[in-house]
Amino acid sequence: MVVIRRTMSENVYEQNQSSSAATAEPGHAVGFVATEKNTEALLRAILRAQERGYDVFVATLGESDGESTRFAKQLGAKVVPLRTDELAPETLRRCLSVAAEEADFSSLLIHPDIEKRIDYDRSAELLDSEDFCIDAAIKAEASSDALAPEIVVGIPAYNEEQTIASVVEKSLPVADEVLVVDDGSQDETATLAAAAGATVIEHETNSGYGAALQTTFEEAHTRNADRLVVIDADGQHDPTDIPRIVEAQKESESELVIGSRFADDGDTDAPLYRRFGLTIVNLLTNLSFGVIRPRSWVSDTQSGFRAYNQRAIESLATDDGIGNNMSASTDILHHAHSNGYEVEEVGTTIDYDVENASNQHPVSHGITLVSNILQTVEHERPITSLGIPGFLSSFVGLGFGYWTFSNYIASGTFPMGLAITSAFFGLAGIFACFTAIILHSLKQHLDD
Q1: Are the C-beta atoms of residues 96 and 110 closer than 8 Å to each other?
Q2: Transmembrane segments in this chain: where (predicted)?
Q3: Rounded distance, CA 255 to CA 344, Å?
Q4: Which of 339, 368, 397 is the last residue of a domain?
């Protein structure tokens, strides 16, 4: 079961106010109406208005302590409580106008339907009118996905209470939404992430890194996000690199962009044994794709710093082939290869000098990855992985068989050791060849 906690903290407001480029003249405000059903749209509308330099008034119907009201206050909006669940539009306009006039504002844009976006450029022209209360101009292209975020930053997390707040806070200025998937943490990861301004999705039990990624893809797809950038929760990745990776994806139109330790301008302070292990895993992963030329290889197959476009988000959200454990990174690359995605790498720095940099032992992690790669190769390329080795094994068995009978004819003594060796290689090779043929036939049948 997944529990969704949507939280926008005061941190969002503070960062938004400090970084926004105001376009409204002092004294102008926008009026919204809060209901029980429009909380999320209201928060985004408030943030967009504040980015444009407008003060915000929010009329609340019914309960004055509802979720919409609390969040509006946290974002710095001026709340106008109304003691009824329903009012005529003209009455709402009058109540908001009175509140804005009493606060000495020179004009008020009224926008009751916050499911549609305000065209602030056109609305600014209307402010020259002598009327105090003006209907906001609506964007002509507003549609069902008008509120879809452009960039969602996804952060899978498990017991990361020491670092999660810092990672979220650094990600907020470069994202439309920060989404933390808490994979059954036993500490305060979810609470601290929500307090820092993230939307938190909680797994009731620890299901694994791959399961957290799957939830991240599903949530991004539900939001119709243009791009999903996934980073680690332990602070190894630098969120300030996100705009550079997103820009590279826009320019190349690649479905997947990887923040690589080993690409140009990339760097890492990984220990020598980790570098060696990564080299082996990168080699096996690229060979499993059937890519022979090193120039065409993905240099950092295990980097968790990745940007996905809308096509990749949609297909990964519905792919049951992504494993639940740490091998999910490799599974995603196989998905990308199978679907013909363009994969680009951008150099980035991955810092291992952080506390709790990895929750899994590197040796067990490496064994899991190699095992997963071999299983994938066996499934995807049975002729290559089983057929060719099986043929070679049969040929070796035939050689040992010839040696066995040559010795027997020359000495009159039957060499049992050579005979057993010949039988082993011969039977193993024949079995591997037949298995390869069967798996290849099944794969062709399933593909058709």
Answers
A1: yes
A2: 386-405, 417-439
A3: 8
A4: 368
